[in-house]
Amino acid sequence: MKLSILLSSLLLATVSAHPGGHHEERAVSSQSSHPTYPTNTTLAPNWWNDIVPYGGINTFAHLPHVFCLSQPSETFDIALIGAPFDTATSYRPGARFGPRALRAGSQRQIPAASYNALTGVNPYASWAKITDCGDIPLTSFSSELALAQMTSAFEEIMTHKTPSGGSPLLVTLGGDHSIILGALRAVNKIHGQVAVLHFDAHLDTWDPRFYVGTPFTHGTMLNLAGREGLISNNSNVHAGLRTALVGMGDYRDDTEQGWLRIGSEDIDDLGAKGVVEKIVQRLKGKKVYLSFDIDTLDPAVAPGTGTPEVGGWTMREVKRILRGITTAEDVELVGMDIVEVAPAYDNQGEITALAGAQVVFEVLSGYVKKGELAGKKAA
Ligand SMILES: *[C@@H]1O[C@H](CO)[C@@H](O)[C@H](O)[C@H]1NC(C)=O
Ligand SMILES: *[C@@H]1O[C@H](CO)[C@@H](O)[C@H](O)[C@H]1NC(C)=O
Prior knowledge:
Its cofactor is Mn(2+). The chain is an alpha/beta fold.
């Protein structure tokens, strides 16, 4: 795919990125030293290879699509894969439409014009080969069967190689949060135990015994992951917590499972910088799986989700925290997901989907930047 862009749509992107900003119209100067740009309707050869943000079939950020599950020899540095699943939810369902919404929310991320000035990288036009692998065809009739399906699919993706023979970064577009269990199984097979950095309003380490006969839910899967030995028992982090509890025993259980808790209000005392420092301190030297539940954000920022909790972080705070963590020297990212985007509860401005797509952009920016700093170059 040719990574270019129509000048007109680049202008559109620039102008709309600065609403009410400094792009005031001025009378065109008549000074002859200023070049003029007359309208030119002569078309360049193959002009149709250009990308417009409002056109095309929605792959994530207009990246190339390959259905990776049936193409075992396909290589990529980063695999984006959708897990459209929501039958393990406890409140409002609808996250099965998350992958679709996230792809739609990513359409203004155009590979030729996605330079992240704060990270100093364009994640889509650097060394990393990034492929939108499509969606895992998960059943909606049995959560247990779906878990077997997603585990198999994630494991299949993780058997793929990068162009230089390594293991790819797994990026999952959820889906309700339970999909992390399948992803962690697959990542564990390649990397062994990982530390989980869990952005969420909720603990998700709840004891499966509370859910008699149906242990696999979007509130228990981190507990299950611990029992399966997939994740570290002393270096995981929750960030953005603010849910109500059954009682303080929930925190004791959580601590026993190896979790550090950063509450949403902690940012008032620590600042975004302090939150980053606390997380990096905890994750230093670890292989890290970053899981981002969209309900970390305040419902004013991200209403389109299944179990909203008021009093959350803003996207501006989250961008800074993600940048700080993903560019930290001694934190090795091996997988990520963005989960619980349920577009039926989003607003007409698609703000939840936009925020979710931005989370992916920020994390990939940090990941690709670190690769650049380590000497990786475009093939
Ligand atoms: C008009 O556009 C065509 C196609 O991009 C280009 O080849 C040509 O040089 C342009 N002409 C002028 C006068 O800028
Ligand atoms: C963590 O797991 C190791 C074995 O993998 C075990 O020796 C250790 O006691 C565990 N720590 C806690 C706090 O459970």
